[in-house]
Specification:
5 helices; about 0% strand; mainly alpha
């Protein structure tokens, strides 16, 4: 399932996939794969992404 919440949060801060990737220490391809739903990130990576974007785990990774 695509992670449109992550993509929207990233875009709201005007970060490219590469910028977010650099801030959390992964490749741009990893961020792309998470957004496309092709990769299930570790909890540590989820937390790092949330900290950079100023969001909670529920905001970005909880499916309703």
């Amino acid at each position: 399932m695509k992670n449109l919440k992550l993509k929207a949060a990233r875009a709201s801060l005007d970060y490219s996939q590469l910028e977010l990737a650099d801030k959390v220490g992964v490749s741009r391809q990893t961020i792309s794969a998470i957004e496309k739903g092709d990769y299930n990130p570790t909890i540590n990576l989820c937390i790092a992404i949330c900290k950079v974007l100023g969001k909670t785990l529920d905001d970005l990774f909880w499916e309703e």
